[in-house]
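Below is how a single chain appears once it has passed through the pipeline. First comes the sequence as given, then the structure the pipeline wrote out for it. We keep one example in the README because the format questions we get most often are answered faster by looking than by reading.
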Amino acid sequence: MIHPTAIVEKGAKIGQETKIWPFSYIMKGAKIGKNCNLGQNVFVEKGAKIGNYVRVHNNVSIYDGVVLDDYVFCGPGMIFTNELNPRAKKESEHIKTVVKEGASIGAGAVILCGKKLGKYCFVGAGAVVAEDVPDYAVVVGVPAKIVGWMCECGKGLQFEGGRAICRECSKKYSKKEKAVRLKK
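Resulting structure:
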């Protein structure tokens, strides 16, 4: 479903069952997976890659060099950057930013380019991410700092002796320093 006011340039790749809402603009060369939902006024630049089942809320720009894996959530008005030293007088040098599977980015958060957001991490609303975010970490603030850990199901994890069991879904995790792993 592509809203009549949305513009999708010829050469953009859009997966099946993806919805693109009013006033969005998708450039040629952009790749968007299946079953995604792109809200009102979303811009996707050439070279951006969006996986499957991704939700991008209103007023988000996904620039060249940004890669969103499957099941990523981008809250309203969150911001990706793609240049470390932007100047109008010089050629753009786009820096790759990767958001891993299941990550959630809150409304108004800013993700500086060149960073990696780990699997199922959670970036709080208004946070400014200036460093990589580990898998399952919860980060908030300016600059964003780790304040906790979150299960794939979205519930907080409490570690004791380097181990945690989710109270909601019973998945088991281990933690060593800033590395959290799902135990199989």
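The longest strand covers residues 145-150.

See the next section for the split statistics.
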